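ESCALATION

Customer reports they have been waiting on this structure for their group meeting. Please prioritize. Original submission:
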Amino acid sequence: MGRVPVKQEQTRAVRLPRSVRRAQLLDAALEVFTSQGYHSAAMDDIAERAGVSKPVLYQHFPSKMDLYLALLDSGAEDLIAKIKEALESTRDNRMRVTAAVAVYFSFVDDSAEAFRLLFETDLFNEEPVRERVQRADDECAALLREVIAEDTGLGSEESTMLAFGLMGMAQLSARRWLRGDESIDRQRAAELVSRMGWRGISGFPRHSQSTRQLGEPEENA
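Update from on-call: job pushed to the front of the queue and completed.
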């Protein structure tokens, strides 16, 4: 007497807090988008992968695009946080550059699906997607810009340009490493790229020379 029917017990057992359910749905969506592509993926597939009904899925995400954008936000926040942590781990600017480049390699290796959503999306022409990718790039560049400006004395716009150059080099190199035969381990690959990046940054004039235009000859004494 007094026992809860088995069916009701089971129903209660799978009832999750909203935040936990949301994370579960995002994990399922990431798997489906990665394996099938955004356009081929259906909400039915995502609900099935998550082990929930479609109404439950729609309670959390009204559309497939909402799911995709939430995944973009999550991946971008993770990348930005890791770059910030890397830059705050030392006061040595060379080591900061090395740590930031290493973040891209660890991100592509440990979070390959999120990396592809951010940097290999075929939905870039969709305004909400484009805005998120560009915002992530801008925030990462702003963090790197401060390091470059501090070390070179270059202005904000020039430092931003170099920051995007460093990011592009790190992203493309990390993608190439992931698709290669992995004869070069991750640490060595990141080291090679960061050394090249730092060599370029360290070649710029420091504070006392920063007002001279690039390529402009020094005045004769």
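Sent to customer with the following note: The longest helix spans residues 127-152.
Escalation resolved.
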